[in-house]
Amino acid sequence: MNNRKQYWKKNLRYLLILLSIWFIASFGAGIILAEELNSIRVGGFKLGFWFAQQGSIYVFIILIFAYVYLMNRLDKEFDVDEK
Amino acid sequence: MDLATWTYLIVGITFVIYIVVAWLSKAGSTNEFYVAGGGIHPAVNGMATAADWMSAASFLSMAGLISFMGYGGAQYLMGWTGGYVLLALLLAPYLRKFGKFTVPDFIGERYYSSNARLIALICAIFISFTYVVGQMKGVGVAFARFLNVPFETGVLIGIGIVFFYAVLGGMKGITYTQVAQFCVLIFAFTVPAVFISIQMTNNPIPQLGFGGTLSDGTYLLEKLDQLSVDLGFAEYTAANPDNTVNLFFITAALMLGTAGLPHVIVRFFTVPKVKDARLSAGYALVFIAILYTTAPAIAAFARTNLIQTVKDAPYDDVPQWFSNWENTGLISYEDKNGDGKIQYLADETKNELTIDRDIIVLANPEIANLPDWVIALVVAGGLAAALSTAAGLLLVISTSISHDLLKKNIKPDISEKGELLAARISIAVAVTAAGLAGLHPPGFVAQVVALAFGLAASSFFPAIILGIFDMRMNKQGAISGMVIGLLFTTVYIIYFKPQLGGPGTPDGYWFGIAPEGIGTVGALINFIVSVVVSRITPKPPQEIRELTESIRYPRT
């Protein structure tokens, strides 16, 4: 049972880290800091604008696949994966 | 071949495909009817989810909205994609482990209360029905505009198609037709975008062309900023500091709403395993992102193209597409200063050009001089987007009635066969009712969609999250949270929506938050009320604590 608790704790830690990145990329870079980031240019894009209309979406995709990878590993480690 | 023939041909072919696919995937049991037997491959489910999710509005209207909003259009782009992160991380895997058929199922069992189930049921039906009426209307409009069929006939054809495959196939039929519809709609959306990107920036990938240079060597977005300023509009890419709070809340409300919409959530009941549910949300977002990262590029291309074409152009020299769309009333010109040229300006008193935002996607292929078959394809794509979303929503309505209401509340001893028949009858009734409502849509349909998102965010999202992550959450907490969250959100939206009869004006918005963003506050209120009430009322029973514990682990 202790093992179970640890599995859940680790899951919550992953969630905290990934959701922080989720928040920073969208609400942070795309909204709150957009004006400041707009002074930085990458190619034809202002950075704040790019995060708001492109970058945040790419970050979202990466986050989901990172979670899939981490949880598949965790499921195996704690032997709760579906056979 | 002319445009009308091409359109009939392509739309006809796609409809035949949907019908054949539906016939091949008929449902034989309630399990197949509700969740497609639970055996859908995660990538297939991802595609079906994407089609389910992307509605007529995503396909036809979103790029146009962004094109007129500039930077602020990001609220739709982030809001309608970011919710998938919440779904994948916080909801989908646990609901899959729970392994029932519907959202009211989860609410009812986790909160051991048929009242909770009933509240969830009413919300699910209300949200889905308001949403589906808009889709039916979209089908009618697409037919009317492109096939010269009366609006009513268009809606009836739409009803017929959805009726056939939803009644016959249930979730199983809907899933596989949605896969076909996804392919049609994504192809139809990206093909014109690629052509236009090449024409303007010489880069075949719209997402890169978006940041590329025009033939004169200036960056596209720089040029667009300049053109916008010249006409008196704000810079296209500039953030508006006065709108930051509002943008934040609207984006959050759309994200939480996405993660709380029943027709999206039920898609994750159809995959075989918990790990498939996580992966499937990833696939879904990839498929959705193809459209959602292309749309802002189209918006910028079209805006630049449009301004360059009409800016101070003599009215007599306008290109053919301009006159074509003038006939439909989507674009209109009034020579206020009598100089025979088009002044397109931010200043209302001097502006001579009125443009409907929907024109951005619809007229794009013509503006870029693409062949007729591409235009026909866009029509088929818009229809695919509307039909696939409508089918998913109708299924939620029918399942709510036959499973949650009939089987779980009124007649628990109903046989499997009887329930399946009831499911078929209720979806038939739902399709017909939605079609009729689509024929005579109340003027406030667009406003009601904001309400649907607000309600999903302020009712389902917190109740499900707490049901998974808070062991101590009990029925008193969850019910009071849902009721107060719902009431608050509904009252605020109605009060500040003149189209719904509310007396409020934007000056009265709390902290400048528009009704579209209030679902975020409603969700917060729901969370707080739930937690406080649950701590001062009895613990949930032991078997509920065990249920909550068990959904946290893929295998127990």
TrEMBL record, chain A:
Alphabetic keyword roster: Membrane, Transmembrane, Transmembrane helix
Signal sequence, renumbered to the chain: none
Transmembrane regions: 12-34, 49-70
Domain Sodium symporter small subunit: 4-81
A Pfam family: DUF4212
Coiled coil: none
InterPro entries referenced in this protein's UniProt entry, alphabetically: Na_symporter_ssu
Name of the protein this chain belongs to: Putative solute:sodium symporter small subunit
Organism: Ekhidna lutea
Organism lineage string: Bacteria, Pseudomonadati, Bacteroidota, Cytophagia, Cytophagales
Automatic annotation (TrEMBL), chain B:
Subcellular location: Membrane
CDD domains from the UniProt entry: SLC5sbd_u4
Keywords, sorted A to Z: Cell membrane, Membrane, Transmembrane, Transmembrane helix, Transport
Keyword Endoplasmic reticulum: no
Domain of life: Bacteria
Transmembrane segments: 6-24, 53-71, 77-95, 116-134, 146-167, 179-198, 247-269, 281-302, 373-397, 418-438, 444-466, 478-496, 508-533
PROSITE patterns named among the record's database cross-references: NA_SOLUT_SYMP_2 (PS00457), NA_SOLUT_SYMP_3 (PS50283)
Entry keyword Transmembrane: yes
Matching Gene3D superfamilies: Sodium/glucose cotransporter
Family of this protein: Belongs to the sodium:solute symporter (SSF) (TC 2.A.21) family.
PANTHER family for this protein: NA(+):SOLUTE SYMPORTER (SSF FAMILY), SODIUM/PROLINE SYMPORTER-RELATED
Protein name per UniProt: Cation/acetate symporter
Protein species of origin: Ekhidna lutea
